[in-house]
Amino acid sequence: MMLSNNSEQPLGRSNYGMDYKGPVRQVSTSDLVCWAFQVARGMDYLVSKKILHGDLAARNILLCDENIVKVNE
Question: Any catalytic annotation for residue 44?
Answer without folding.
Answer: no
